[in-house]
């Protein structure tokens, strides 16, 4: 298994992993992935767009989204991390997170943010293992489009020990 920069050729498999997460309702309020690679890539930073691949198969992916367009926040980004259902529970999330943190720090990011549904215990644990701390809860942040339930969003952040000091 290798972790490499995400390319347009990975998009169909990245989209499928994202779509599966949306259908299960535990990871995002989104209901449809972006229509195509350009729509996906235009909303995310090139830094941190990574895929874990085994042969030609994408097992998981990460991406960073700018927190704000204001220059004062240039070192702050929100992360996304998604794994194929059959690739979960095997340490892949940790390998992807390590690669994402290294890539972000190499580009001068000092804070990574994550919003996680409380039911997504595995994601909370993954983030905590990699230096994220829970800094708050946004209560009843949104109504999930599939279940109709109001969901809280746990706010996590990771401050770099290398950049932004």
TrEMBL record:
Per its UniProt record, what PANTHER family does this chain match?
N-ACETYLTRANSFERASE (PTHR43072), UPF0039 PROTEIN C11D3.02C (PTHR43072:SF23)
PROSITE patterns given for it?
GNAT (PS51186)
Molecular function per GO: acyltransferase activity, transferring groups other than amino-acyl groups
Q: Which InterPro entries match?
A: Acyl_CoA_acyltransferase, GNAT_dom
Signal peptide positions (record): none
Where is each N-acetyltransferase domain found? 1-156
Q: What is this protein called?
A: L-amino acid N-acyltransferase YncA
Alphabetical keyword list: Acyltransferase, Transferase
């Amino acid at each position: 298994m290798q972790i490499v920069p995400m390319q347009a050729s990975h998009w169909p498999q990245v989209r499928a992993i994202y779509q599966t997460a949306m259908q299960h309702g535990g990871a995002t309020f989104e209901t449809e992935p972006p229509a195509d690679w350009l729509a996906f890539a235009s909303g995310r930073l090139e830094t941190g767009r990574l895929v874990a691949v085994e042969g030609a198969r994408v097992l998981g992916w990460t991406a960073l989204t700018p927190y704000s367009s204001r220059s004062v926040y240039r070192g702050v980004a929100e992360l996304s991390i998604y794994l194929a259902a059959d690739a979960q529970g095997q340490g892949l999330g940790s390998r992807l997170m390590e690669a994402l943190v290294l890539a972000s720090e190499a580009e001068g990011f000092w804070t990574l943010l994550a919003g996680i549904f409380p039911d997504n215990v595995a994601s909370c644990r993954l983030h905590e293992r990699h230096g994220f701390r829970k800094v708050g809860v946004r209560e009843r942040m949104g109504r999930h489009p599939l279940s109709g339930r109001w969901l809280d969003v746990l706010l996590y952040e990771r401050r770099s020990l290398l950049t932004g000091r």
